[in-house]
Write a structure and sequence with these properties.
370 residues; 8-stranded parallel beta barrel; 2 domains; single chain; globular; binds ligand G3I; TIM Barrel
């Protein structure tokens, strides 16, 4: 027979098991959880391993995939952050001009936020100022610089206000620099733009508008091929340093980290670490925002090499105290941007196209748990 003490201990154990089950499966909801074929995570999720390191583990997601049970089950249990892969970009979210009675479309973005909230995940916003995925009413509107300024200001204000207290950080400006460190000619910068001849002034303006729109959001500049110390990262560093000195509201830098196996080079990895360190010294928060490692095939050797590189990049973030986010650009090879953009390449993510964990998953988990 159990005494009162034993009963109470048994009850506590039962409750702990139930509660842990809830965090492990992150409150999997409804049909998605019941129908999923994905095995319940046994030895702890990426999310749990990240929590132990005070590291957010994120992924990009699309609302149109949430109806897939396996997709939803993995997204809601393995990750502590969700970022819209496309839904919050200018074109999808602001498809019609402000003169239209219904200029915005928040449907997909709201669905992603609702999913994240119901799975106790934070949401990171992407992106407010970018030259890609713009609607024709902007690109073909023949707007003057003054009109473009009004359009962008009002866009930032409306989108950030809509997601205030739901989106904790935004990629305010995305990919503004060329590889040689010069500014990319864009409709926002100088085509005709709002900043021709004034360098990074338009980026500063966007950051100030963003701070005004949601003072509690963390504001990021985000770019690719700026992982290593190179001309592009030098230009971003110079801008960030200037912004910090002048009180421009910049809270962090996003390093996209879309890489191939060529990146698994001690010199490149050391350069990435050095680069993170110099940005950290400016007091900025550092996020790895779009990590994926593309392959030419899915042979065991390629998958092993991919795993090694994923592990090494994870370790870089773990070892840099200002690195607070490790995020992959999607999580299943079934839905990755790589095959559509790099012909013949793919297999870039942590789960394969059948939602089975790849060696890279274990490598990231091990690097977090080390
Ligand atoms: O939504 C339309 C759909 O209505 C249409 O039928 C279909 C036909 O092609 O296109 C759909 O839009 C596509 C969209 O993804 C949603 O799937 C666009 O054509 C396609 O160009 C777009 O690609 C996105 C790309 O950004 C655009 O440049 C990728 O999904 C997305 O992963 C990628 O993400 C970027 C980051 O935002 C910034 N850093 C680089 C990263 C990879 O390119």
């Amino acid at each position: 027979m159990m005494n009162a003490c034993a009963i109470s201990a048994w009850f506590r154990m039962l409750m702990t098991t139930l509660l842990c089950g809830m965090c492990g499966t992150a409150l999997l909801s409804g049909a998605a959880a019941q129908e999923s074929r994905v095995a319940a995570p046994a030895a702890g999720t990426l999310r749990q391993a990240g929590e132990a390191r005070h590291l957010t583990i994120g992924t990009a997601a699309a609302a149109s995939h949430l109806a897939e049970a396996d997709y939803a089950a993995i997204l809601g249990s393995e990750f502590s952050q969700l970022q819209a892969e496309n839904a919050m970009k200018f074109g999808p979210i602001h498809p019609r001009p402000d003169t239209d009675p219904n200029p915005y479309n928040f449907v997909s973005g709201d669905a992603l936020v609702a999913f994240a909230q119901s799975h106790n995940m934070v949401v990171r916003g992407h992106t407010l100022v970018w030259h890609n995925q713009l609607p024709e009413w902007v690109t073909k509107g023949n707007h003057s610089p003054a009109q473009l300024g009004e359009i962008l200001h009002s866009h930032i204000k409306t989108v950030m206000a809509h997601y205030a207290s739901k989106v904790y950080a935004w990629d305010v400006v995305n990919e503004a620099f060329n590889d040689d460190g010069t500014l990319h000619p864009t409709i926002w910068y100088d085509q005709p733009g709002i900043g021709a001849g004034t360098g990074t002034k338009y980026i500063e303006l966007a950051l100030r508008w963003a701070r005004e729109a949601d003072p509690s959001a963390k504001l990021f500049y985000n770019d690719y091929d700026a992982e290593e110390v190179n001309k592009k990262s030098d230009a971003i560093y110079a801008m960030a340093k200037r912004f910090k000195k002048n009180g421009v509201p910049l809270d962090g830098i996003g390093f996209q980290a879309h890489v191939g196996l060529h990146f698994d080079d001690p010199a490149k990895l050391a350069s990435f670490a050095r680069n993170l360190k110099r940005f950290a010294k400016l007091g900025l928060e550092l996020h790895i925002t779009e990590l994926d490692v593309r392959l030419n095939d899915s042979s065991p050797a390629s998958l092993a090499a991919q795993a090694k590189l994923y592990g090494e990049i994870t370790t870089l973030c773990v070892q840099q105290p200002k690195c607070k986010l490790l995020q992959t650009w999607g999580f299943t090879d079934k839905h990755s941007w790589i095959p559509g953009f790099y012909k013949g390449q793919g297999w870039a993510l942590l789960w394969d196209d059948k939602y089975q964990k790849k060696p890279a998953y274990e490598a990231v988990h091990d690097a977090l748990a080390k």
